[in-house]
Amino acid sequence: MRKNIIFLIFVLSLFAPVHGWSAEPLDGYQRRIEVLEQKLERTQKKMIRPGENRERRQKLRRKNKRLHLKLKHFVSLANEYILSQMASHASDSLGASSHREDSALDLYVIDGRTGLIRAPLEDGSAFDVHQYPFFDILAVTPTIQDVDSVSFELIHYRIEDNEAPFTLLPDPSPNTSGWDPLPGRYPLSVRAFEKGVEVAMRSLEFSINEAPDPSGISLSLVNTHSDAVLRELSSVDSVDLRIFPNVSILAEPAQQNVGSVLFRYPGYSRVENSAPFLLAGDDGEGDYLEWDPPVGQIEIEILVYSERRARGELLSSRTVTLNLRNSDSPTPSPTPSPSPSPSPSPTPSPSPTPSPSPSGDLWADYQFTDVSPSRCTRAV
Predict the structure, then answer these.
(1) Which bin fits 126, alpha (ψ -120 to 50), beta or left (φ > 0)?
(2) What are the backbone dihedrals phi and psi of residue 25, each rounded to the nearest 5 degrees, phi first?
(3) Element containing residue 35 per DSSP (H, E)
(4) Is the fold of 94-211 the same as that of 217-325?
(5) pTM score over 0.85
(6) Buried b vs exposed e over 310-341: b needs ≥16 C-beta within 10 Å?
(7) How far apart are the C-alpha atoms of 104 and 198, rounded to whole Å?
(8) What is the DSSP letter of 308?
(9) What is the 3-state secondary structure (H, E, C) of 334-361?
């Protein structure tokens, strides 16, 4: 009997870290999530490395899928633990002192890349968006088991999710750039449905605080073939891509305790966890990867954090406006003079302006970056 008990204890000790039976289960989950994020990052770098053959890329894609499934598993375990702690304690490490045990619909701010819960979302909540750079919202119905869809009505748009976990943006992914909200107040209504019947509803308003003043970040244009610095960049600058092809941007923060640097502009984001901090990253062996910049004007935001993965304290930030052009673009020379125009015909009355495209307006006005048009409709 004693031998059987000793053997049972030994078996349980093997599985304890996986099932959260350790003294600090949340720390264990977070360490596993951190390791999986690092593995995903390395795999993705290998997938874009020049010279990889087709068979090798397919193997890397399969590995990437397996890692992503493992990441979702441990995020699910971590979130279950966080929710159980919130339910059993009036105050916990996430600051959920106002959690309402009788709520049929609870809302949380999550990391849009992993889905990990970062903070509860209550009426009147205020956030510095730079502390939550991959902003997303999760809806949980703790007392209702058969919810099959949730709609989020934010500002003037309704976004529906028909599969758990129910989130404002598409399912969390390491490639997401999340929602980049502007400072201000945001009204939000969330409704949960079971077979088309509304079973829970929640309305609140939260706010996004102003960004801190930019400071302490030197930016340089670099050649990705030679890794040489071409020139420093000012806060408003122009780059001719014909003169400077094969480029990237190097950020050099003044601080010594830098954990990571986040680069982002509409439609793009990247976190660099170690120097050199490059807009397009490197191949993992020190060779700079080439940036594929859009032609036109863009604003690039650079955020410096004390911890890896754009977490911890925001140490500094900077925004640079770049006018990117390619002088190879053909222009008529000389510019032809326009032919005389006849007297204008009467202008017909304009037809009514149609409702704006959800995906386009959502991007331009409110800076959602990963909303599929099939999930988003204009709210009535």
Answers:
(1) beta
(2) -60, -40
(3) helix 25-47
(4) yes
(5) no
(6) bbeebbbbbebebebbeeeeeeeeeeeeeeee
(7) 12
(8) G
(9) CCCCCCCCCCCCCCCCCCCCCCCCHHHH
Q: Where are the domains of the chain?
A: 2-87, 94-211, 217-325
Instruction: Return d(Cα 375, Cα 176) in angstroms, integer.
Output: 16
227, 236, 301 from 321: Cα distances, Å: 23, 5, 9
pLDDT tens across 116-165, in order?
898 899 999 988 767 777 788 999 988 888 899 999 998 878 899 998 88
Spell out a b/e string for 98-133, using b for 16 or more CB atoms within 10 Å of the CB, else e. ebeeeebbbbbbbbbbbbbbbebbbeebebebbbbb
Within 13 Å, how many C-alpha atoms sit on residue 218's CB side? 9
What does the buried/exposed string (b/e) look like for 77-92 if buried means 16 or more CB atoms within 10 Å of the residue's CB? bbbebbbeebeeeeee
**What is the distance between the terminal CA atoms of the chain, rounded to a whole angstrom?**
69
Tokens describing residue 334: 């000389």
Look at domain 94-211 and name its CATH class. mainly beta
Rg (CA), the chain: 25
Closest CA to 212 of 141, 134, 318: 318
Q: Is 171 helix (H, G, I), strand (E, B) or coil?
A: coil
Can you tell me the distance from the alpha carbon of 44 to that of 283, in angstroms, rounded to the nearest whole number? 10
Q: Lay out the sheet containing 260-265: strands in order across.
A: 236-240, 311-325, 296-307, 260-265, 268-272
Q: How many CA atoms lie within 13 A of 267 on its CB side?
A: 9
Per DSSP (E only), the strands in the chain are: 106-111, 117-120, 126-127, 135-140, 149-154, 157-161, 166-167, 184-194, 197-208, 217-223, 229-232, 236-240, 247-253, 260-265, 268-272, 277-278, 296-307, 311-325, 376-378
Q: Which two tokens stand for residue 269?
A: 């984001």
Burial of 235 (0-12, 13-18, 19+ CB in 10 A): exposed
Tell me which architecture the domain covering 217-325 has in CATH.
Sandwich (2.60)
Q: Do 347 and 329 touch, CB atoms closer than 8 A?
A: no
8 A C-beta contact, residue 256 and residue 343: no
Return d(Cα 170, Cα 354) in angstroms, integer. Answer: 26
DSSP state of 212: P
Give tens-digit pLDDT for 200-248.
Answer: 999 999 988 866 555 689 999 999 998 989 888 888 888 888 888 889 9
